[in-house]
Please model this.
Amino acid sequence: MKQAQDFLKLAHEKFPDAADYDKIQKALDFATTKHSGQKRLSGEDYIIHPIAVASILINWDMDRDTVIAGLLHDVAEDTQTDLKVVEEQFGKEVALLVDGVTKISKARAGRDDITTYLPRTKDNLTKLLVAIGADVRVIIIKLADRLHNLRTLQFQPREKQLKKARESLEIFGPLADRLNMGRVRVEIEDLSFKFLAPKRYEKLKTELETRIGRSKQNLDDVKKEVSRRLAREGIKFRVDGRIKSVYSLHKKLTKHQNIDDIYDLIALRIIVDDVTTCYLVLGLLHQIYQPLPGRIKDYISRPKPNGYQSLHTTVETPEGQIVEFQIRTEQMHEYAEHGLAAAFHYNEQKLSDTYKTGGLAPLPADLRWIQDLQRAAGKLRSGEKVDFDAFKVNLFSDRIFVYTPNNDIFDLPAGSLPLDFAYQVHSEVAAKAAGFKINGKIARFDTPLKSGDVVEVITRRNVIPHVDWLNKIFTSHARAKLRAQLRKSDKSSIK
Ligand code: MN
Model:
């Protein structure tokens, strides 16, 4: 079979070591035998799906065991293969990964509300927690699985297409974004959007292509001029262009009326060797072209919550062409494209347990939920109690990232209010809250917080927590802390 041959060729390139390659080949044989006779809706043999998933994982530079688990990811669920057999043949690590992916599918089967990824019952949630918490590579396999299913979605009935597309846009896209897997997020979003709104998708795609075609000459000139200038300064660099994805254009158009107001339809990326050179290049660009005010972003000194780093600036050429530049190091580039997957490079076979389970310190704030999951999963395994209500708010709902005036970052669920932030900082601070400043301005207790807000708690010694605060709180964490304080002050006032 052609797919199998191509896969083995790819595997051989990435895993030249005979021991690794043989194990992968053995897994391919195993999966092929198990799935034999099964068909995809396209009419092809089922095995093309696990092969495609494993190929995606190889292209993401994942380690050997993850690739093997990709080949075997459906054997437990779809062929009733005992995981003990998988463990005997391929080791405990692979068996755990396959088990994790299977548990996610099972947990998901128990829910019908697609707007939240939260399973309906605690039992399902338990499975999900244990599955993901055990090893983040489970999520990465799941993303590869979803990606291939989206690429072949045209064979599904319309109803299923819509369900999968919606679910992907709401869960798997954001999940990829959380992991800073930029390229995967874009593909998931564009494929989903294409199925959800085919006409709008085609219209925007054509519009995007037309505009880019029109400014191609201008952009080439800019690229040449910049390259000449950087070369003259003796800077080692490469430039590539990135075209805005259709879905992110669609999202931007919900905020801006006119496509002409969107300046980053195309961005030029300049990739250099080190951080100092990034700033040097930024300075040079501003010498050549006029920067637009308010469009210079330093995500190097202040990375995005998911760990993304780059310098961004938008400039105007003398010809009136507006161009966005993104300047970053090779390492930042790799991380922006592949995110967490970049941590599992195939030639780093020997991953320590902490590394593998996301215990890399420090994790970007946006990835701390992985640690939360792992901690919860650990508790479950050792028979401890887990506060499931806390997860209801926190697990997959949107997070916002809020800063203290000292630049400490706190992540909170979207919808959080200033008191939620204060309780996150410290309960004693919250208890003395007389007011708040958001971005330097006095704000009311019921002002919803936004990502990027700098929040200052104004405290006064004579303030005590008030029962009315219960209405000005969103998170269960803050609510629990406040309740405890109210009980305590009740008792002391009786005395
Ligand atoms: Mn699958």
Notes: The chain has 22 helices and eleven strands. The domain at 399-489 is CATH 3.10.20.30 (Ubiquitin-like (UB roll)). The pocket of manganese (II) ion is lined by residues 49, 73-74, 145 (CB under 6 Å).
